[in-house]
Amino acid sequence: MRMATIDSSGRLLVILGLLAWLALPVCTWAQGQEAEGQWGLAQHLMKEGEYYRAITEYKRFLYYFPGSPKADAARLRIIEAYVKGQWWEEGIRKARELLAMEISEEVRARALFFMGVCQIRLGLLGEARESLFEVVRVSKDPELRARAEYLIGETHALQGDWDEAVRLLESITQQSTLGRRGSQRALLVRGRTPLPEKSPWVAGALAAILPGAGHLYTGRYLDAGLVFSVNAAFASATVEAIQRDNLPLAGGLAAAELLWYAGNIFSAVGSAHKYNRALHRELLEEIRLPERTLEELPPLRTEEGGDPP
Fold first, then answer.
1. Rounded to two decimals, what is the model's pTM?
2. At residue 23, does pLDDT exceed 60?
3. What three-state secondary structure class fits 290?
4. Domain residue ranges in the chain
C-alpha cells in the first residue's frame, strides 16, 4: 500500500515537471512579448516628443527587464531624452552613471557624445572637447566620429578661435555625411574672417570727442542722432542759462549734461561689444550643426532586431 502511494507521488512529480518544462518556452515567449511592448511604448513617446514620459518608460523597461539585450540602449535613450528635453545637467549625470558601468565601446562612445553635447550647451567647452576627443578615439563609427570632430570645431568657434575651427572642419573625412558640410563651412569661415570688428576703445574715444560719433562708428545711426541732439540741447540750455545769470539752473543743466555725456561714452563702448557679438553669433549660426543632427543617432545593433528571450 505504501509502495503504491510512493509510485503515485513519483508519477505526479514527473507529470508536474513535464508540464513545467513544456510551459517554460511559453512563459519565456510571453516575457519577450511584454518586453517588446514596453520598449515600443517608450520609443513611441520619444518619437512624439514626450521626453519626460519616455524617460519614465525606459526606466520601467530597465526595472522589469534588466537583463535584456536592449538594456544599454535604454540607458542611452534616457540620456538622449534628457538632451532633447534640454535638461543638460541631468544628461551629464546619467551619462557619467552609464560610463561607470561595464559597457561596450559603441555604447561608451555614444554616452560620451551626448555628454559632450550637454557640456557645450552649458558652456563647459574644455570638458566638452575632452569628451568628444574620447569619442573620436574609441568609436569605430565614422559618422559618430565625424559629428564629434565637427562639434570640437564648434567649441573653438565659440571661443573665437576661427583658425583652429577651420582646421578641424577641414579634417573631417569626406567619406562621412558631414565631410562636405565641414569643407563648405570651413571655406565660409575663411572668407569671412578675420571678422570686421569694431574697437570699443575707438568707439569710446569718438564718443568723448563728439557725442554720438561712437554710435555712428558702430552703425547705430538713430542712437547717434539722438545722443548728439540731446547733448547739444543740454549744452545750449546751459549756455543760455549762464547768459541770463541763472547760475542755479545753469549748474543743474551742466550736471545733467555731464551725466548724459558720460553715458554716451559708456553706451558707445557697449555698442561696439554688441556689434562684435552679433558678428560672431551670425557666423556661428551658419556653421552650427542642426539639433536633430546632434541628437538623432542610428539605432544600436541591439535595438534593430527583436528582444531575444
1. 0.76
2. no
3. coil
4. 200-287
